[in-house]
Amino acid sequence: MDYVSLSLLIALSLSAITFLFFRSTAAVSRRKHRPPPGNVGLPFIGETLQLISAYKTENPEPFIDSRVARYGSVFTTHVFGERTVFCTDPETNRFILQNEGRLFESSYPGSIFNLVGRHSLLFMRGPLHRRMHSLTMSFANSTIIKDHLLVDIDRLVRLNLDSWTGRILLLEEAKKITFELTLKQLLSIDPCEWTENLRKIYMRVIEGFFCIPVPMFSATYRRALQARRKVAEALSLVVKERRSEWEMGMKKNDMLAALFDSGGGGGDGGFGFSDDEIVDFLVSLLVAGYDTTSTTMTLAVKFLTDTPMAVAHLKEEHDEIRAKKAASTALEWEDYKSMPFTQCVINETLRVSNIISGVFRRAVTDVDIKGYTIPRGSKVFTSLRAVHLDLGNFKDARVFDPWRWQKTSDTTNFMPFGGGPRRCPGYELARVALSVFLHHLVTRFSWEPAEEDKLVFFPTTRTQKRYPIIVRHRSKVAKQCKD
Ligand code: HEM
């Protein structure tokens, strides 16, 4: 090749490289100012109906799978009256959750605001949120559970299981247990007629979360608001009485006492919490721990029932613990710490069922993600479910396999309790309650489904018929086998 041709070739190659470089840079910069791709569906309703019909089935995954395949792991849709960016990969979700208060803030619908109250932790922001989140954590951390809460959890679970016989609706039983545990932890009140009445009213509040939140159109929502007022009145009386006891130096070891202590006393002092603020705070804790823990208890049992080898493994683990103790002796912290397979079952239940399938945030400024820009003010949904059920993150991700947790200690892609500053402050408490519940269940009972029941995911994750099962005392089963 002569000198002229060589120079020409080099010049042409350089211009081609330069052209391609500028074209791709321009494309990235153009994309950068574009919102994530997607389809916003029909006017007003967007893709809400597609989402609801998918989540009312046992297999809602196609809703997200098909959009991820088409648009990538961050896509735009329009659901529940608003354009929403769905995020389905672990890095983006972590980034969003960790930037709470800086680039994003939590965003709950107004209907929830009316039901939990404006002084709830869910709606707090900034320094007040940080302070109250850490107060809640400090009340539900492992030292407090070990020294103080475990004994009540054990006693109340046992007490409830004492009355089990024949056919029961497991979800209802689990809800009763969870409500009683929470009231004990918050207010030191043991189950009695008052707690049972409060629970009945409170269940009407919960119904309000899953209906059309417009009083004019929905009797359920009206009833829920009324019930919320009644619950607040009942709690206010307790708070008032306890405040005067606290002022006289009478201390109890519960969340209410921690709230009095942290504020230095009454709201009129300027830096303490008023009774109304405390009541809202207590209601939000009741709401946050109630459905989540009780549904996880129920689903753990459902998945176990469908996986007999896991039941056998679990029984072995708990029989061994019980063999070292008298039948009526309470579980201790060391017992809880020697339940490795139980923790695998809990992890796997949380991973597969995703009681909180994801959390909503709102962008407080334009945020660049994956080469696109999420415009300021946009609603964002970080889907925990999509991460947990992605075949790229977990092998055979859609199969319940508790043993997978024996092979790995890597929990990078596992976020059932969320992340960042709003990470669930009740995560350890929930784990302990679940472990104690499973212990007493498998050491005392055998069970079988009373009828077919199936999982659905809208409006929340649960089984359609509240999981009816038939329970038999293990001692009786053993005797029958001998005879
Ligand atoms: C299996 C049971 C539970 C699951 C799966 C769960 C899951 C979650 C998740 C994903 C969040 C994050 C919400 C967000 O980022 O916006 C959260 C927040 C929260 N959880 Fe839990 N939770 C459970 C049990 C509990 C319990 C027992 C309590 C009682 C103390 C509790 C209290 C809270 C509170 C107060 C928040 C709000 C935190 C904040 O906004 O700062 N949770 N939970």
Automatic annotation (TrEMBL):
The record's principal subcellular location, in a coarse class, is: membrane
Q: Which family does it belong to?
A: Belongs to the cytochrome P450 family.
Where does this protein come from, organism-wise?
Answer: Centaurea solstitialis (yellow star-thistle)
Q: What keywords were assigned to this record?
A: Heme, Iron, Membrane, Metal-binding, Monooxygenase, Oxidoreductase, Transmembrane, Transmembrane helix
Q: Give binding positions for heme.
A: 424
The answer to keyword NADP applying to this record is: no
Which cofactor(s) are needed, names only? heme
Protein name, per record: Cytochrome P450
Pfam families in UniProt: p450
Q: In which pathway does it act?
A: Hormone biosynthesis; Plant hormone biosynthesis; brassinosteroid biosynthesis; Steroid biosynthesis
A GO BP entry = brassinosteroid biosynthetic process
InterPro entries in the record, alphabetically? Cyt_P450, Cyt_P450_CS, Cyt_P450_E_grp-I, Cyt_P450_sf
Tell me which GO cellular component terms the UniProt record holds: membrane
Q: How does the entry describe its membrane topology?
A: Single-pass membrane protein
Q: Which PANTHER family match?
A: 3BETA,22ALPHA-DIHYDROXYSTEROID 3-DEHYDROGENASE, CYTOCHROME P450 26
GO terms (molecular function) for this protein are: heme binding; iron ion binding; monooxygenase activity; oxidoreductase activity, acting on paired donors, with incorporation or reduction of molecular oxygen
